[in-house]
């Protein structure tokens, strides 16, 4: 497993990282604690994976019996079996975003994560989403920035970039974390955070984590990859949702997701009873519609044809493509079975070559025809009640 430096600091991570959002969750096919430990045994002890990404809010979804924070506890219980395991890991965890982010809460929530993990430091601490108002376009509901939202009650007193950087700097000075960063943010958030850190004398952020895949390449075009480049701010990039919620495995192409099958209620009911993945779960299916929009399906079919022509699965092409993007430091992915994890790690073995340049160009040609498929739809006017799919409510 190749290792890469995360930005300009001294943190080195494996180019594949374990995603843990649903570890121990109340979800229909989530891995339980025993399976999560098997994942770590195989990935960390056998295959050299060092990166594990989690959050205080995980697992998602949670319930009374499987509360938020339990994923950190599961990771901690694995490390507790052998004290030498801690040094094999680079642990990234997150503070819940928005108004929760204050200097006081950064300290309090980090202490909570340390307790659940059973360690005295984390390697990387990030904001799960920004403290400030910013269009949360990773979900697709914001078409543009609305300046009046800056004065909304829940954003009006948001922590400043300087307050956040100062708090992170103090935690680093105390040895409770090694580096910090942001998730679900943009080029402005990245550069402003770096500037604020320099202004208050704190170490600059070392990472930004965003949604990235062959059907969501926004970060390469919206300034994030440029801003994070070693030439500029030198911030590492963690890619998540690289298989677009399972869509880029191709398994939803022949039979649409349950929530998209109103014309065939019998099939929809069968899929709900025996789901192939999150897209067949009604709640996830609505939430993650963006990956199944009409334009996203068109692009996925084109990519599937390229993969078949190249003699590989769409899953393999999607993961190997992400692995070799210049702006990506590490690729995060969650799994529900050992077979899935074993397949993924085959494509991140150091012996696996880069995809041929002709194939990379062919992928680019598909992208140029359909540049932002996950935020395009034939049915617009979305809201949180499911009356639409993508975009703000439009009369």
Automatic annotation (TrEMBL):
**MF-aspect GO terms:** oxidoreductase activity
- According to its UniProt record, what is one Pfam family this protein matches? Aldo_ket_red
Domain named NADP-dependent oxidoreductase is located at 17-362
InterPro entries recorded = AKR_Detox_Biosynth (IPR050523), NAD(P)_OxRdtase_dom_sf (IPR036812), NADP_OxRdtase_dom (IPR023210)
- Report keywords, A-Z: Oxidoreductase
SUPFAM superfamilies membership:
NAD(P)-linked oxidoreductase
Entry protein name: NADP-dependent oxidoreductase domain-containing protein
Species name for this entry?
Answer: Micromonas commoda (strain RCC299 / NOUM17 / CCMP2709) (Picoplanktonic green alga)
